[in-house]
Structure formats: C-alpha cells, structure tokens
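quick one before i forget lol
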Amino acid sequence: MTQEVKKRHRGVYLLPNALTTGAMFAGFFSIISGINGHYSAAVIAVIVAGFLDGLDGRVARLTNTQSEFGVQYDSLSDLISFGLAPSLLAFNWSLASMSEMGPFAGKLGWLAAFLFAACAALRLARFNTQVAVADKGYFQGLASPAAAGTLVATIWFFVSKDVPGDNEFVRWVIWFETIALGLLMFSRVRYFSGKTWPKGDRVPLITMLLVVLIVVLLALDTPTVLMAIGLIYVVTGLVMTIVQRQQHRSRRSMRKAAPGEAPGEDPPVAAGDRTAEESSEERGA
C-alpha cells in the first residue's frame, strides 16, 4: 500500500500542467517579440498567457488534479508571463527612451520595470504561503495577471493609435502605471477573484447580455476596451477596500459607544468584510 502511494506521487498531472506550460511559452514569446520590436504580438502573447493561466486552475479544480507541484509550477510560470514579460515590454517600448532625458531619468525607467517584476515575485511568494488559509472570494493585492493585462493593454492602446513610446507624455504615463500596478500587487487592497463565481450551474439572464455587449465592444476596438476593463477593475478594488474599512471603523465606533461594551472591543465582522490586518484566518490571496 505504501509503495502504491509513493508511485502515485512520482508523476504529475498532464492536462493542467500542460496548460501552465503553454502560458509560460506565451510569456517567453512575448519577451522575444518585445525585444524584436513586435509590440502588438508581445501584448497578445501576454493576453493569451492570462487566458491559459485562468484555464489551468479551473481545469485542475474541475478534474480534481490539484497538486503542490502544480501550485509551484504555476507560480514560476506566472513570474515569467506576468512579471518579466510585461515589465520588459514596458521597458523596451517606452521606458528605455527615458535615458534620452539624462542618466538619472534612464535609471528611473529601468528601475520602474524592475519594481514591477519584483512586486510580482513577492506577491506570488506571499500567495503560496497563504494559499491554505486564503479567502477564495478575494485576492489580497492585485493579481499579477490583472496587473500585467492592464499594463500591456495600455501599451497596445497607444500602439494601435500610432503613438510612439518615446512620446514625453506617454513615457511618464507608462512609468507611473508600471510603478502603481507593481505596488498594488503587493498591497493589501482586496480584489474580487471570481473563483467562487458562478455559485451554481445557472447565471442571471442579464449576465449573458453583458457578455454579448463586451464581445461587441471588443470587436469594435479591442485595445481600448481591454485597457478600460483593466483600469475599471483596478479602481473597483481600491473603492471596495476603502468602503469596507470605513464600514468597519463605523461599526467599531458604534460598538464602543454602546452601553455595557468593553472599551476597545471590536465588533463582529462578516467574513467577506475582513481584511488581512483584521483576521489572520481569512486573508485574501
């Protein structure tokens, strides 16, 4: 019996890890394309990597083929596809041109790209250490695929409008966005993960209408719509976190003011409202 168990753990599950390999290949292809100046292809490759990355996890859960190997392999793939690939694309397309303004500005350019990649690595490491106790409904910090998608979609938007990356305004936009998205990845801002949705086999009919509208808009102007979706998602996490923390402070103040309440005692908080600072057992991934 013990030998049979050991034999089972020697191999790996093929399907989810093959999808992870495909995502890593897309990320590596994006790096090569960006170096060669094929920026649109590099952007599309990152988007394909994001699709495959979302697919491998769902396939693993649906087929009950989750494993510790898959978790670690997926994180390494994510670092390439959503850490290195988008940061190098931003540098090659725009941030490298900051050296034209002087040595100090040139350092600001490549350091911004490094910060994005480093924050992606830190976020993935934190996620792996918290995966067992994470709140599946929310991410703690902006997910690396979302950060990468937002950054490359912004680049694709400017490329599609024939705006060069060395434009003085554009290079500062990309510099600021690269830093902001990198810091949000390692922040404690809460973002809806979508892992627990839908909760059943059926969804409201209005959901299908929204899907149709998104498809139509993507067909009209894919770069613009993808950038808008990414920026909206980034902002919604910030708004949701601010609102939840204000609600928590308001409940705590009300409980302190209530008669018979012990000074400094916190009110009970719903599981979905807790942040990483407020509960060590319900931290967002």
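fyi The radius of gyration is 21 Å.
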